[in-house]
Write a structure and sequence with these properties.
It contains 8 helices and 26 strands. By secondary structure, the protein is α/β, with parallel strands linked by helices. Strands 3-2-1-7-19 form a 5-stranded parallel sheet. Strands 9-16-10-11-12 form a 5-stranded parallel sheet. The radius of gyration is 22 Å and the shape is globular.
Length: 411
């Protein structure tokens, strides 16, 4: 790993403190970049493993750091904590921070990630109505939920993982979703039913095709959740997990282009339309090669790493494009669901294995080809499909339906 070189006065400024930011900084040093590297984040901590916050909510913050502080010192990477960017001037190549300080850059990486969407109903400002984004949030929810009634809004990955974890420590856990089953839009109906059953066996209650109209409280703390269906749920803690939105408000009024959702638009080199300005991770809309360069915004841990690396390589003038297959995993009751590809808009799901025995492989079909795959206890099928997709080959619907699965080379 390299470090700063005397006489190199250039500066790479990285806004954000997640995996995309870290990998970018590391890759620059690995590539012998000798200028100044500044990583400025509004976080209280240097980059950490955010995926653990919903899977092990009593985790200690210092145990999930991706790198210890001495690593940054040894590589001459400056880490500025509690420094939130409020504006970017691409003409002058400067970033202004909330404390009024201004930093010049020669190349800029925007890696500010995303933030959870907040519930907007009456009572949303009550105590113990919370989001999950930081280790402090995770610890606060863990402590507040001990032996208490917990209500979770949202049946995607964060909501379901929080419900799974808290089922062992809370007095009751209730989950509210607007779809017929959890994960319906991502993993499909059959896997959603499996996930729901897993949690119901641990006494988690589901209120599907429903929503929240009001939160009521006593002495400033949440006590009840009123549903659209008319049901009333007791709640000492209310957790919102209804998706995220890009952290890009500080770019409004700049020359950096955003899409309609607020995501930063980049090309396959992770470069914006402004020379010398790159973006990576959850904040971006980027061309997905396996879907014919469809512009997508995907908040996956693995993709953030890949984005950071590609951004750094192109800062180093290597001209390498992003060609990574999206991959993620989710943990429920100690079991790992794995997923690869991009299944948005799929029209059919072909199941292999036995869903009732919790051992299956799901192929997501669009226009007669496999666009994504998910599994439970069916390793290493998902990684093998990801390798096929990364090579540019397609898997046909006929192959997915066939009883002959020798092409997948399962053990």
């Amino acid at each position: 790993m390299g470090c700063r070189v005397a006489g190199d006065s250039s500066t790479v400024l990285i806004i954000g403190g997640g995996p995309a930011a870290l990998v970018c900084a590391e890759t620059l040093r690995q590539g012998s970049y000798g200028g100044r590297i500044i990583m400025a984040t509004k976080e209280e901590l240097p980059p950490y493993d955010r995926t653990k916050l919903s899977k092990a909510m009593n985790v200690k913050a210092d145990s999930i750091l991706l790198r210890q502080l001495d690593f940054y010192q040894s590589c001459d990477i400056e880490v500025w904590l509690r420094r939130e960017a409020v504006s970017v001037n691409t003409d002058e190549k400067t970033v202004t921070f909330q404390d009024g300080s201004v930093q010049h850059y020669d190349q800029l990486l925007i890696a500010t990630g995303s933030r959870p969407r907040e519930v907007t109903c009456p009572g949303a400002d009550l105590d113990n109505v919370t989001l999950l984004r930081t280790p402090e949030d995770s610890s606060r929810i863990h402590q507040a939920a001990l032996g208490k009634n917990v209500v979770i809004l949202g049946t995607s990955f964060i909501g379901m993982e929080v419900a799974s974890y808290l089922s062992a420590t809370a007095s009751s856990v209730s989950v509210i979703g607007n779809s017929a089953v959890p994960y319906q839009n991502t993993l499909g109906t059959e896997i959603g039913r499996v996930a729901r059953k897993m949690l119901e066996e641990k006494n988690v209650k589901f209120y599907m095709e429903d929503g929240v109209t009001e939160l009521t409280g006593e002495n400033g703390k949440v006590k009840q959740v009123l549903l659209k269906s008319g049901k009333i749920l007791p709640a000492d803690v209310f957790v919102t997990g209804i998706g995220v939105q890009p952290n890009s408000a500080f770019l409004k009024g700049s020359t950096v282009a955003l899409d309609s959702t607020g995501a930063v638009i980049v090309d396959k080199f992770m470069q914006t339309g402004v020379p010398g300005v790159f973006a990576a991770g959850d904040v971006t809309s980027f061309p997905l090669s396996l879907r014919k360069d469809k512009m997508v915004n995907i908040g996956h841990w693995q993709l953030a790493h890949a984005h950071g690396r590609i951004a750094a390589l192109n800062m180093l003038k290597k001209r390498v494009g992003i060609n990574s297959v999206p991959f993620f995993w989710t943990m429920l009751m100690g079991k790992s669901f794995r997923y690869a590809g991009y299944g948005e808009g799929h029209t059919e799901v072909i199941m292999k294995g036995k869903v009732e025995e919790m051992k299956f492989l799901a192929f997501y079909i669009k226009e007669d080809v496999v666009v994504a795959v998910a599994s439970l206890n069916f390793d290493p099928s998902v990684s093998q499909v990801a390798e096929i997709m990364a090579s540019g080959r397609t898997i046909s619907k006929a192959q997915a339906k066939s009883d002959d699965m020798s092409w997948l080379k399962l053990p």
